[in-house]
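Sorry, I am new here, but would you mind making up a protein's amino acid sequence and the tokens describing how it folds?
***
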Amino acid sequence: HVFPLGSWAGASWKEIADEWKSQKVRFPDGSILVSDGELGLSEAFTELIPERQRCQWHAVRDLYHMMHADGGRAKESRPYQERLAALMAIELPAGDFAKVDDEEKTRIAELMNSSEAEVDRLIAELQAKGYDVAVNYLTRAASSMFGYVRRWLRTGLIGYRASSVVERVMRAIGRRIKKLAYGWKEKGVCKVAKILLKRFAD
């Protein structure tokens, strides 16, 4: 389920986080922030939601664009994209967490640790080849690449690996706002967005 917390236009992520802090917004234990790689987004909400998961779809897709920014072509980036996708694809057991034995939990924790080490090696390879933009992007992403695994090991909750749920809602709202609110001031756009969110969500 989607539970909107507000609608903003022209506000920074930090301003939104500060507003939530002033309103004493609290997220339950086990909450996880799933986000794309937009600068400042996950950093702004660290105090409110310490557990983070970088959207895996964006990480793989955007690696191509980051390598392209350093002169890389599609045929050069594709093997790195495939490696990254394979490293992130740690499957968690479906069903009751309490029924998963300690040996299996240990195996998954070790797999996560080895995948993190492999991501570091991938970053080192890109650095050696001069893909500085891609290195910076992946280095930032690496810290929250396996948040969904850490959360499962800590709480037993299965979480999202991609931001697609939110993006589907935002895409639908965006299409309607472009028709309804073209040329409106930011305050008016926010009001229309709130009305649409109430229609879309719980």
The longest strand covers residues 33-35.
